[in-house]
């Protein structure tokens, strides 16, 4: 009988969804301001988790999304439009991934679908 390994504290460093970054650090990492992060939060592009003290905390995945929106805003796109574009890009990427997965499964010999 094997026993599962208990989670290690360092496992959180590899988790793209772990809310590791404070607002100030997150803004610094993507080259924006805390106000920009609040704005993309208000546009519902990303929804930061809250610490026990009520402070916003961001994951690496959320920062990548916010950074993409920032690129669009820097190119002159209004923030609401930038958020909508990023959401649509994310949905398209997911649909393409699922499509490829379905094609791979259908191409496997002996699979019935």
Automatic annotation (TrEMBL):
- State the InterPro entries in the record: DNA-bd_dom_put_sf, MerR-type_HTH_dom
Molecular function terms in GO for this entry? DNA binding
Q: Which GO terms describe its biological process?
A: regulation of DNA-templated transcription
Per UniProt, residues of the HTH merR-type domain are 20-88
Q: Which domain of life is it from?
A: Bacteria
SUPFAM superfamilies assigned: Putative DNA-binding domain
Q: What is this protein called?
A: MerR family transcriptional regulator
Which lineage do the record's taxonomy fields give for this organism? Bacteria, Bacillati, Actinomycetota, Actinomycetes, Kitasatosporales
């Amino acid at each position: 009988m094997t026993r599962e390994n208990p989670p290690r504290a360092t496992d959180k460093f590899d988790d793209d969804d772990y809310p590791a970054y404070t607002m100030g650090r997150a803004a610094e990492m993507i080259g924006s301001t805390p106000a920009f992060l609040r704005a993309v939060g208000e546009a519902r592009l990303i929804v930061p988790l809250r610490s026990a003290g009520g402070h916003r905390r961001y994951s690496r995945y959320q920062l990548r999304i916010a950074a993409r929106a920032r690129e669009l805003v820097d190119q002159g796109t209004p923030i609401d439009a930038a958020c909508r574009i990023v959401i649509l890009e994310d949905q398209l990427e997911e649909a393409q991934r699922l499509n490829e997965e379905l094609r791979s499964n259908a191409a496997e010999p002996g699979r019935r679908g």
